[in-house]
Amino acid sequence: MTSEHTQINRMNSQVTQPMRPQSVSEVTQPGHAVVFAPKPVIPTAPPPPIIPSPPVTQAFLPTQVQRRPQRSSHWRWILIGSSLFLLMTCAAVTLAGGVLLLSGILPGVSAGGVALGGLNAERAAQKLAQVWQLQITDGNQSFAVNPAEAGLTLDAATTARYAESAGRSNFIDGLFGTIQVAPVYSLDSATATAFLETLRAQVDRAAISAGVQMVNGQVDATAPVNGRVLDVEATFTRLRDPATLANGTFELAMVEVQPAVMDSTSMLEAARRLLSNPLDIRVYDPLTGDSVYWSVVPEHWGSWLTASPDAASPTGLALTAQDAPVRGFLTQQAASVLDTSRYLNMDEAVSSVLDAVARGSTAPWVRVYHRDRQHVVGNGETITSIAWDYGVPYLYIVQANGGVQSVSAGQTITIPSVDTFLPYPINPDKRIVVSISQQRTWIYEGGQLKWEWLASTGISDSPTWPGIYQIISHEPNAYAGNWDLWMPQFMGVYQPIPGADFTNGFHGFPTRGGNQLLWTNSLGTRVTYGCILLSNDNIQLLYTWAEEGVVVEIQA
User: Fold this and answer.
1) Which residues pair with residue 485 across a beta bridge?
2) CA–CA distance from 208 to each of 34, 320, 330 (Å)?
3) Residues 273-298: tens digit of each pLDDT
4) Which of 369, 386, 406 marks a domain boundary?
């Protein structure tokens, strides 16, 4: 059954014309088997075809006709809408660009770093004239400068026209991108060169040679640091090219400089010896004779050390301190310790410290200077009395106040600085003190009293003037023509008349007429014409001991 059913099913699925059943007749003969033979076929009209009903199974359902899918009208409208939007946008942009082209400078256009988009040429020129600056950079720092200081004079109107033209010739960049127009200017060579020379102090960085430093008590070598200096000639050439200013920033031409010493390891032993002590900077005030000390521990000042070439040294190097940290320390200390009437000559003070370190000394000293003072005249005061109280010869006060001959109460006058009378380098370890009231002289060395002597000063009509002075000259035998006196071992101290070749000072017993010895019995009384008299023996000692520059303090 299974085989037959399968064959039928197969036939049902393939045959379009069904088979008709044929009749058979039986012939039976004795002794023979039954045989089924087909009956003769009588020709007749063919019956209508019979279409068998297919079995109701999914496998034999009629195959469905596949239809081509139809596009939705929704997507068609989206495509049409997008196209229309794009066309409208392009039209709007084109229209806007056309309007801008007709009305002014395109949005992306700038000149010399100044944005000019949306402005017409006239307004753009006004803006350029008002806000254009020279933005300078050295690669590490930048700062704004008035172009006129650098010798640049802007042609704002021409620059604005160029900006307008640049947008028209490059529409896409001007509308959507960026166009930088070089400014149009004239350049004054002398002003520009002078400006660049003054710029050096702001941008130059000195090279730092290899040095040493102390860290946690250990002295180690430090690496060298390259310096950078301004190449004035190359920078000036750049300044002449407007294209270098198109974006508003002008880059200086800097040149790297290598330090003189690249390796300081040979100086470590010398540095260890030097850094075994603090750096004690003595600050000496010649007005008062006092000293204070600004001390710096090795861990701090060790970082100031550097090596420099020295042909006289066995290693070819010398150890010294760097200028910048020394200057910074002294400046900070002076600002916090000294009052407004006193100051340091910073170049001189830094040099003093550097020289001491180069000599292997940790005990440098620096000098205090003094500014002019202002005095309000009190009741009953005169120029002479004020000059006596301040210790300044009165003619110097007259000179400092425009030749004034008299003063009145409430008037403010200038008192010249004590430094007026200290023109020579000072020795802080030697000082001579003279007392007019006691008629005595004390000589100090290293803060200790060395000698104490009787002395004689000037009479009332020609007094010795109090003040802070110094030894300014040495003459074996000076002559005073006003009094016909020869003064042995004369040492000048001050000039009572500004600019005049007339000096008061120390000397021994004078002679008159070549043989008359004066005042030998007058020591301790006021007998001179303004000088300070000492015995011949004492003046000989002082003449040899006190070099020019030793401070002389004359007390009233």
Assistant:
1) 480
2) 135, 12, 20
3) 899 999 999 999 999 999 999 999 99
4) 369
